[in-house]
């Protein structure tokens, strides 16, 4: 039996994190695009929303917000790194 790859492990983590909600997974996958850094960033942003009591109870809405916040954070990181 072949071993599970890092990419597959990330995909399983994403599916589990998003409570097996396919619509939410689709939102996240569109952003992540099999990029390990974007994956970690999204997971952290989504977790932060959960810890900070984000008022939206819908998994898809939280995923969309996590994508938006991840995109903003990535823009800041990219811009700052390019300026140095």
From TrEMBL:
Protein name per the record: DUF2560 domain-containing protein
């Amino acid at each position: 039996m072949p071993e599970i790859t890092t990419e597959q492990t990330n995909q399983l983590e994403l599916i589990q994190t998003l409570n097996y909600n396919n619509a939410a997974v689709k939102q996240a996958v569109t952003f992540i695009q099999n990029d390990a850094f974007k994956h970690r960033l999204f997971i952290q942003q989504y977790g932060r929303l959960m810890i900070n009591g984000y008022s939206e109870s819908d998994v898809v809405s939280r995923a969309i917000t996590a994508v938006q916040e991840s995109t903003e954070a990535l823009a800041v990181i990219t811009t700052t790194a390019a300026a140095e």
